[in-house]
Amino acid sequence: MALFGNAHSIDPAQAQQEFARLFAQGEQVHAAYLLVRDTILFTDRRLVLVDKQGITGKKVEYHSIPYRSITHFSVETAGTFDLEAELKIWISGTPVPVQKTFTKGVDIYEVQAVLTQFVAK
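Request: output the structure for the sequence above.
Response:
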């Protein structure tokens, strides 16, 4: 599954409020990133991919990935000519990684640290 577009960070409290209906009682958003129309949420329990579909974006798919299902991940930093950083996440039972592209303004090391915090538990 690949989501296209560049991501930038958004306030976790704003994401917590906007997507409140998705969360279990007590579940907290620790980091959130907005792509063109899609959102990536790192909660204390799982990774949530919000995929707006169609021209209007009214149809939305919510993809929940428990951290325990993530077998490994990689980050690729932005370069001199390639201004985008990439995050790839492999999920058990799926040979193709989930790929996310981030603008140079996003600290990919921060994204990696958030993911490490939860996957390493």
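Residues 17 and 90 are 28 Å apart (CA to CA).
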